[in-house]
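ok here's Multidrug resistance-associated protein 4:
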Amino acid sequence: MHCPAHPECNTTCIELFISTSSLPFFVSWLNPLFRIGYKRRLEEDDMYKVLPEDGSERLGEELQRHWDHEVQKAAKELRPPKLTKVLIKCYWKPYAVLGIFTLIEEVIKVIQPVFLGKLIQYFENYDPDNMDALYEAFGYAAGVCLSTLILAITHHLYFFHVQRTGMKMRVAMCHMIYKKALCLSSAAMGKTTTGQIVNLLSNDVNKFDEVTIFLHFLWVGPLQAAAVLGLLWVEIGPSCLAGMAVLVILMPTQTMFGRLFSKFSKTAALTDNRIRTMNEVVSGIRIIKMYAWEKPFSALVNDVRRKEISKIMSSSYLRGLNMASFFAASKIIVFITFTVYVLLGNTISASRVFVAVSLYSAVRLTVTLFFPSAIEKLSETRISVRRIKNFLLLDEIVKSEHGFLQEEKQEPNVEIQDLICYWDTVNVQPLSPVPPSNFPQSSLLSAILGELPHDKGVLKVKGQLTYASQQPWVFPGTIRSNILFGKALHPQKYEKVLRACALKRDMELLPDGDLTVIGDRGATLSGGQKARVNLARAVYQDADIYLLDDPLSAVDAEGQFPICRRAFGTLKSLCLFPCVSRCICGILKNKPRILVTHQLQYLQAANQILVLKEPVQTVVEESRSEGTIGVGLYVKYLKAGANILYNYMVKSSASKCNILKWEIFSGLTGATLIFGFARSLVMFNVLVKAAQSLHNRMFNSILRTPVRFFDVNPIGRVLNRFSKDIGQLDAALPWTFVDFIQIFLQIIGVVAVAASVIPWILIPLAPLIIVFLFLRRYFLQTSRDVKRLESTTRSPVFSHLSSSLQGLWTIRAFRAEERFQNTFDAYQDLHSESWFLFLVTSRWFAVRLDGMCAVFVTITAFGCLLLRDQVEAGSVGLALSYAVTLMGMFQWGVRQSAEVENMMTSVERVVEYTELESEAPWETQMRPPPEWPSQGLITFDRVSFSYSSDGPVVLKDMKAMFRPKEKVGIVGRTGAGKSSLVSALFRLAEPEGRIYIDGVLTSEIGLHDLRQKMSIIPQDPVLFTGTMRKNLDPFSQHTDEDLWNALQEVQLKSVVEELPNKMETVLAESGSNFSVGQRQLVCLARAVLRKNRILIIDEATANVDPRTDELIQKTIRDKFRECTVLTIAHRLNTIIDSDRILVLDAGQIHAYDEPYTLLQNHDGIFFKMVQQTGRQEAVALLQSAKQVSSTLTQQSMKLQRGGTVWSSVS
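and the structure:
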């Protein structure tokens, strides 16, 4: 990162700015950046480095120390810890000092009307010969001008520093939240969700940016009101009490609005729910599409969003009332004050009117806008702080040290004796001893890792651990960075690991070798490649003890054998049965290894075999382009322009109140109030509905886009739009938009009134408007890019969080928490660079606008004195008061218009996702017959397949036929195209060539008509948060009896009956309270329910134990006897009894025949794969294939005698 045009000054110029920020043009150091931004688009390298005192690590650790101290102190005092107290203790001193700026600004606001009144009095008592009075008037004019200039400086100094303080609090809190997420225990993970943590980081922490701006007005407001009351008493006597009474009434009314707003704005839980669902949808989009479940998920999200919008709409109406009351307050106050003043028999003078109006305007801003905003933001922040505190108080994993002291010379070992562990201490279910179909083996590894606390028994670990998880975890980055995982690169060792893990060939095939960037969730790699990278990471670590949780279940037999031989070694290993892994001979031969596996053929290489049984499963209840909003919306906005007429007439009446009838004045005031309130409510209604519409369109677009989109876009990028950007559309953008429109209309009214009374005021105003508009354009060229950078630098924060939560056990097993925390801090610092730049560029713009306004006030004030013989006191009062009003209003209007345009980048980003490439229609006019497919005949006719138009072809000119009721096994090395064949069949991307099912060309029918007629049991079983019933039957198409029968078929009925609410039990996020095997059985139950003629099994038994595998195979043979079944498998024993086996290699058909026939070809891939399972297993597989061949021959002879020949079908 460097300073534009001056790389050597980097942070120095910012530090200089901080130290000299009392100067009027204290942001002139930004000029080079604006020049660059005006010429070209800004890039990340153009941003300034974050200041050391704003760094994420420094801020986070400081707040963490205060929080840890508070937690310890609260524990001693037997009370809950208070996060608010910690925040105050950490930040109160620097924040309190900023109150001085506020006080100075508000004092000057009170003094300025006094100068104005004295100046108008000079014109009321004008005497051309009184030079002393003239000199005194020049002094008052100078006072008006100087106070305007000082106001501008103090205002922007205050706003910059309080916003920077808010940024520091937000950054520190994000650091703590991420640090806590890395430490959460397994029980605590069941009490929160990824969606909730993302919401804490995206929306809750943003309250600190908002509350710091207004907090000081809680004490400044009452003080200023008292001072104004005193001055008004001197000016107009007791009549001021009437106007102040209105303010006194408005203050508690606004306070009530603030509290009501807090009540109606409790959308956080609903937002958590929506983002969690979005996280699950994006993570499981492939399964959702293959099941054709887009509609129920759309209904689920729309239902949550509807409830969320209902709350947002209520709070927006309150915002509208709040805003309208602020704009109406001045009219009510002036009307009541001078009505009482006239009724008391007083005579109105110009000086009294304009002094009173100016004083009321000063206090009105504080009392009716800033003061209630402070209450509103404080209420919101308290809710957010409470949510963050609850998260920070969740249970943490107990860390233990397994390393040796330097002087110790011991053999690494794991000692376990009489161990009893509980996943949930409330629903007490022990880890051991239990029957063999669940996941006690993985639980044992969890206990050794420290993830599962033990209640009784002995568990001692001596030595440094490393871990390879059952479900491969890779993080976004290069393959090399995934393998090294923070370790230094040693080329020889690295090459040895690549060979041992059978990755050399993959590195040669990938375009950039080991520097190929892995997409989110490893989207660019096959399942087997991810598994081998996951294993290589563990092997590369120089650890004492290796914990390997069935790491090669997704690897084909051809790949398993060399890995086992080269990597694991033969001795010092413990295999856990029935989840057994391979420990043959290689890199780790001298290391203790505890391996969990399902591959029984490698048991003979183990030193010891530990047989575990399973417990009853514990269930933990989850506490749960540039785009515009649309022409129609702008038309509705422009209708509010009718209000200009009323503003004009009311403002005219203020200057000529002694002429107009009070009845007319009253009528105009009433009309202004009615139309003002109606305008605010209508505009907020329209904008919130626009946000709802854009969200729904974006979500529908996400559901309809091809899966390739999710392979190349990190989950954080998608969630960023559904959390932060939609949050902007829901809350910040409507308020800013409405504020800009109202200010814009008021400016038109003010200028029209002023010009009608004093036409010469247009002379300085015209060039001022031209300069303003040019400056706005110049500013937006840079500001828009800065805002876009702020949005794009936010996405990596969410992606890193999501990726970290997925690989939490691996990160902790490798003791990599600190490194991942540092990466998170680096992403935060990058975002802080853009956010800081956004703050200072806004001040750069505002200072220049206010400076020009101060010049305008100066010209007007001294111009009146120079033209003293031609102007009246009333005209001078109007000109000066409007000049001061315009000074604040005009620059605020221009800034708000720029802010609206900046916020439109969120709309732009949302609109971008509403226009994503769409896959084929879900339904078309050509509908297949209701009973289709009745046979299950599948024909591939010269089919080629690629996941994208510019991507590699993964299936090449494939011709194959799958006969009705035929059971076909599909095998091949990792990356051969097995899963791509399934993707082509389900049209996850459009294949070239033709695929027929029972004679129907699949490319001519709708995707839902196609996908709903095929069942799939996926490689990675996916369950969604929701009830077990919804996971089985989201369309509610089946009876309870059907659901229970399906569960009975897959032997899950007893498990579900033991759940607290049986079928209505809400599952944890991603079904994490079920084992992998149980999740796979749920997927099988779905297939049983659908009763389709075609079933695809995509390596479904890769991660389950032999008993579950056998159960799945038996169910398939019994329940799907009349179906065409395509089985992709790495375990050859699961497909050796197939009617035929399709062997793929590099996207082409290598062989397609009966298993026994294939085994006769000793040069074929299938024969080699069988041989690599080991001698004993190979003999068993050959015998099974021979038996199948004999059976098929007998069946063929029977069919021939019956006059039916299979070949006639093919």
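+1. The chain has a mean pLDDT of 75.
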